[in-house]
Structures are given as C-alpha cells and as structure tokens.
C-alpha cells in the first residue's frame, strides 16, 4: 500500500499540442524566408545580333506576340504574353512595350488575322516566323521589333513530407514545378532573329496548405531571368532567390488584389 501511495501518475502526451508544435515548426522557416519559394533558373541565351543596338528599345516600342505551345500544352500558354509585359516593366522599365492585346487589336483592324494565324501555325513546325508575314504585321502594329515566347514544358508535383501516423495527418507538403520556356526577339522589317533564349526553372515550396506552386509565379521567374540575360548580354547563367530584382517579380500586385 505504501508503494501504491507513492505512485505518481505521469501525464499523457497530448497529440493536439504536438501537432500544433510541428505545424508551427514547419511554417516558421517559410515565414522568415526572403522569398516565397526556393527556386533556380538556368538560362542559355544567344548574344544579340551585332547589328542590333539594345538602346533602340528605349526609343521605339517592341511588340509581344501571343505565346506558342505544342498541342499537348495548348491552353497552358494563355497569359504568358501579359506576364512578359509585366516582367519587362519591372526588370527593364526603360523598354517601351506594345502589349499582345494592343498588337492583336491592330492586326485585326488591318484584316491580318489569317496571316497572323498562318504564320504561327507554321512556326510550330519550322521554329521560324515568316519574313513576309512579319513585314505586314510590323507595318500594321507600327513597330520593328517583336518578342515571341513559347512554352515548351510545364509540370507540377506535390508530395507529402511529414505525416503523423496515428491519424494520417499531413503536416507538410513539398510542392514543386518545372518549366521550360523559350523567348525570341525578331526584326519585323528584315526577318532577322536578333536574340533567343532558352530557360529551365525549378521552383519549390514547403507548407501545410493545399495550394500548388502556381504557373504564373514560375513563368514570371523564368521570363525575368531571360530578360536579365538580354539586358546584360549574358549567355549561360544561373539565377536564384539571392537575385532580388528577379525574386520580386512573383509579388507584382495583381488587378483586384490589395
């Protein structure tokens, strides 16, 4: 009886506080990080044509054509042209831009929609923009230069990182995406391909929520890296969150959001 009297009941470990502690532990690094994501972009860009002076784009505008994509990715490329315009405004604010929306309106106004469509369909096979079509479209738009983006690949992956076995509670998920994108700059008067860039981006985030790594954020980082190559005359480059000018493009305010 004396032994029983000296027995002290040990409190059971509560599962709920443990879950809360683990969740806060997982979320803490995310909240303290300088970037929303862990990301890396590798670019392979050509030197600009020796005949081309980059400063001309601060004096006369460059147009943006709607993005191209292979059949299996059709629809995914929608909006890449608008993202490119926003990225240029952040990374290269001195460059004057004619948006795809403005260009499309001028093309249609000058009854060149069929010409534009034919050129784009042929470009998916030849990887070239027809010189004759470029001259007509350039005259209609009122510019000499045009950017042509193309989506090559995009994949999203989500996997569980930590799970509490008794109740199968997903404490943390790793969300990642891979994007391959190309960007070309064409002279619409001569049909010359002035500059081209190919980039591959890997982007990753770890969090408790269900949200994916968004296509738009991946596209912004990819295009900002290619435009940085263009502005600096770089060829093979690597970019990451320490490149603060590029990193901030994923936080550009969106219409309707505060």
Description:
The protein is α/β, with parallel strands linked by helices. It has one domain: ABC-type transport auxiliary lipoprotein component (Rossmann fold, 3-Layer(aba) Sandwich). The chain has a 7-stranded mixed β-sheet with strand order 3-2-4-5-6-1-7, with helices on both faces. Helix 3 packs across helix 7. The radius of gyration is 25 Å and the shape is globular. The termini are far apart.
What structural keywords apply?
258 residues; alpha/beta; Rossmann fold; seven-stranded mixed β-sheet; 7 strands; globular
Question: What's this, in brief?
Answer:
Helices cover 35% and strands 28% of the residues. The protein has helices at residues 2-5, 15-32, 80-91, 100-109, 113-126, 131-141, 215-232, 244-247; strands at 38-45, 62-64, 97-98, 145-164, 169-187, 193-207, 236-239.
CATH architecture type: 3-Layer(aba) Sandwich
Span between N and C termini? 69 Å
Going by helix content, strand content and strand pairing, the class is alpha/beta
Averaging pLDDT over every residue, what do you get? 83
**Fourth CATH level, the homologous superfamily:** ABC-type transport auxiliary lipoprotein component
Sheet with the most strands, sense and barrel status: 7 strands, mixed
Q: What is the ordering of alpha helices and beta strands?
A: HHEEHEHHHEEEHEH
Task: Give the strand line-up of the largest sheet.
Answer: 3-2-4-5-6-1-7
Beta-strand percent range:
25-35%
Number of helices: 8
Radius of gyration: 25 Å
As a percent range, the share of helical residues equals 25-40%
* Number of discrete domains: 1
Give the C-level CATH assignment.
Alpha Beta
CATH fold-level name: Rossmann fold
Can you tell me the residue ranges where pLDDT is under 50 for at least 5 consecutive residues?
Answer: 1-8, 13-34
Number of strands: 7
Sum up the overall morphology in one term: globular
